[in-house]
Inverse folding.
């Protein structure tokens, strides 16, 4: 807790509807965020039970400097992933970090299962369990609407909710946070569903006096200036992350049509510029971020004959354009927005959904499955049928779609086509086919995300390729990000928050820290994550890579499978030395 | 010349809440948004528009000051009022009197939160939604 020497943890048991608040001094050495959440996950998880067993925990944590400095906006969720069966870690922006902080909690641990569907409301002096039976089955948008009407705290609250996919146990179901942000990856939505937890509202209206206003405000102003007056963050506001669509295409790094290609002939029509020109209607920010990277696009839908139209707005980002666009051969920005909306209604991770559908499309082409399974023709470029398929996955329409809801690895295990099931250790690939860094980084990354260690960035280095150097860079970045995620800084502001800035921020709010303390914290957190992965029997050397990764050109040409496996082994050895030291 | 706050660029608002954070910080030395004299919210959820609720700087007739039984709200040059905390008895009549809802109440201090048009919020608005205007 800010200005205190303990971490304040709210424990919620859904089975008994009892709560317990703990002040944990011992957790201070994990700083906050992913550090505290990893430790709490380790303490509460049951390695011997299934990910969706009711005794498994959901852990949320805010960081040591959450929302009181610019762009420090994220909340971490940790859980056992129903998609990979191991470490589940996901981040969301929106208002959640602010509201948890202002409700007076550093972390929340939710265990057990409610007898009937419920939603939880947390505020500074109460935790309430409310009847959500009538909300079960509703889309996350509709649930958000009802809760907004019924709960107080407008403007100082955050509303998390799941859609039908989470209720039905889709292994990559997401949790929507404040309409436009998500705990997207690795299936937190299914964990919510398995606990009969439809939604969670946090109201933050506590007074937290500033201890040393002069020091704090000086640092705040410096960071604010660095964020708004310099070019560091401009690209995230202007075109937003979709600015990357064309450059990645030109680098042969844009996964297209289930990675049959790494560039897309219709790229201009789905570029950041195309979205800005045709669809962009608004930009928004997470609370505490003066950048505003959230881009909202609009499309028009004819819902009936006789010129009956509605306008629909959804958030779009690079990763969504890749997964629900180029990866499925979708040629227009309007259609991509329609697919994003379908995924929003269902409450699923956009990236996994797109990549899973890419596998299904090719499996159908190769006749590993037939339309008896798929019900409709899945074909690259056919957005109408993909929208239907998204609904089928969310509902678990038939046995085939139930399997698709478990991810591309499971689908390929049952129906074949492992050579083109584009996942890393069960987590569907991100939109960067840049080279060895991206592939090895995703395999060795604690949660198999491109954000674990930014392998795609290592691939874009101007230096000559050197296996050891790439492995070292991945390792260092993985460890450093454990520290950044204990604060929890939005990784877009990675360049604003250098170590000196981080130390100035922390010290102005009463932490007494030196550079070496940050290093020690980063290592302590990474070790905790590795312990969790070991307990869950993850072996990085057992990961099999789809052949397709080595058939389609990257920025660095066609890759060699042997080199990738060799680099994974090198990382493994380095990690073991670190772990045992 | 006296200046007053004008929030007439809210169509450009991204909802970052920086204005509220610095208002609460500078004027109340508190991290909490509840201490801010300017409040940004959405109408109709996050898909609705951002609006700001803040003192409009009434000039001729100031309903809040008229409602105050203890003379704690003094006319501010250029518009709006200034709170004389020592005279305030915490009756909340000013909260009710403000037709745009710009006066909120600090439950801990038992005093209304009154915008003094200091303009710090305008300096931390990244999108020029807020500005200071010179008035006669």
């Amino acid at each position: 807790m800010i200005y205190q020497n303990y971490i304040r943890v709210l424990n919620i048991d859904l089975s008994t509807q009892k709560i317990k608040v703990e002040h944990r001094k011992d957790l201070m050495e994990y700083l906050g965020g992913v550090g505290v959440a990893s430790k709490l996950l380790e303490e509460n998880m049951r390695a011997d039970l299934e990910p969706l067993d009711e005794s498994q925990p959901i852990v949320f944590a805010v960081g040591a400097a959450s929302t009181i400095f610019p762009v420090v906006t994220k909340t971490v969720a940790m859980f056992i992933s129903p998609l990979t069966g191991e470490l589940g870690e996901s981040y969301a922006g929106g208002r959640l970090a602010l509201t948890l902080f202002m409700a007076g909690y550093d972390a929340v641990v939710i265990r057990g299962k409610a007898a009937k569907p419920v939603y939880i409301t947390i505020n500074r002096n109460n935790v309430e369990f409310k009847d959500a039976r009538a909300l079960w089955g509703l889309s996350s948008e509709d649930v958000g609407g009802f809760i907004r009407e019924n709960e107080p705290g407008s403007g100082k609250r955050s509303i998390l909710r799941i859609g039908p996919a989470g209720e039905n146990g889709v292994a990559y179901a997401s949790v929507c946070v404040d309409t436009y942000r998500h705990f997207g990856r690795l299936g937190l939505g299914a964990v919510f569903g398995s606990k009969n937890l439809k939604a969670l509202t946090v109201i933050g209206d506590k007074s937290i006096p500033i201890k040393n206003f002069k020091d704090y405000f000086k640092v705040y102003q410096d960071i604010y200036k660095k964020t708004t007056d310099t070019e560091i963050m401009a690209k995230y506001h202007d075109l937003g992350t979709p600015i990357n669509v064309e450059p990645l295409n030109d680098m042969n790094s844009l996964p297209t049509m289930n990675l049959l290609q790494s560039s897309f002939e219709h790229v201009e029509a789905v570029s950041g510029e195309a979205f800005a020109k045709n669809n962009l209607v608004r930009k928004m920010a997470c609370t505490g971020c003066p950048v505003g990277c959230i881009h909202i696009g609009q499309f028009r839908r004819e819902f009936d004959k006789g010129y009956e139209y509605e306008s629909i707005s959804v958030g779009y980002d690079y990763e969504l354009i890749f997964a629900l666009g180029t990866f499925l051969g979708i040629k227009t920005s309007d259609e991509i927005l329609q697919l994003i909306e379908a995924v929003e209604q269902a409450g699923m991770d956009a990236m996994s959904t797109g990549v899973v559908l890419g596998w299904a499309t090719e499996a159908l082409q190769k006749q590993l499955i037939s339309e008896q399974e798929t019900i409709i023709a899945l074909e690259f470029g056919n957005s109408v049928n993909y929208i239907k398929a998204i609904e089928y996955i969310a509902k678990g329409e038939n046995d085939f779609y139930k399997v698709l809801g478990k991810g591309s690895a499971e689908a390929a295990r049952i129906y074949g086509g492992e050579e083109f099931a584009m996942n890393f250790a069960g987590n569907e690939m991100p939109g960067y086919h840049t080279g060895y860094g991206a592939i090895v980084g995703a395999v060795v990354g604690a949660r198999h995300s491109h954000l674990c260690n930014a392998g795609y960035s290592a691939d874009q280095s101007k230096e000559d390729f050197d296996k050891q150097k790439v492995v070292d860079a991945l390792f260092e970045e993985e460890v450093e990000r454990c520290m950044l995620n204990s604060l929890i800084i939005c990784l877009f502001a990675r360049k604003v928050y250098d170590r000196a800035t981080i130390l100035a921020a922390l010290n102005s709010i009463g932490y007494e820290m030196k550079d070496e303390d940050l290093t020690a914290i980063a290592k302590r957190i990474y070790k905790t994550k590795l312990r969790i992965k070991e307990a869950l029997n993850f072996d990085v050397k057992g990961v099999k890579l789809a052949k397709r990764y080595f058939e389609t050109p990257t920025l660095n040409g066609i890759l060699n499978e042997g080199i990738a496996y060799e680099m994974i082994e090198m990382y493994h050895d380095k990690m073991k030395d670190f772990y045992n030291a | 010349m006296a200046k007053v706050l004008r929030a007439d660029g809210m169509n450009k608002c991204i909802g970052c809440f920086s204005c509220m954070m610095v208002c609460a910080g500078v004027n109340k030395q508190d991290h909490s948004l509840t201490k801010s004299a300017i409040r940004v919210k959405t109408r109709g959820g996050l898909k609705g528009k951002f609006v700001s609720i803040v003192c409009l700087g009434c000039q001729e007739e100031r309903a809040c000051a008229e409602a105050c039984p203890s003379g704690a709200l003094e006319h501010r040059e250029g518009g709006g009022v200034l709170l004389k905390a020592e005279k305030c008895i915490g009756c909340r009549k000013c909260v009710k009197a403000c037709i745009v809802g710009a006066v909120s109440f600090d439950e801990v201090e038992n005093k209304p939160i009154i915008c003094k048009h200091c303009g710090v919020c305008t300096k931390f608005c990244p999108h020029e939604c807020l500005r200071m205007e010179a008035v006669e």
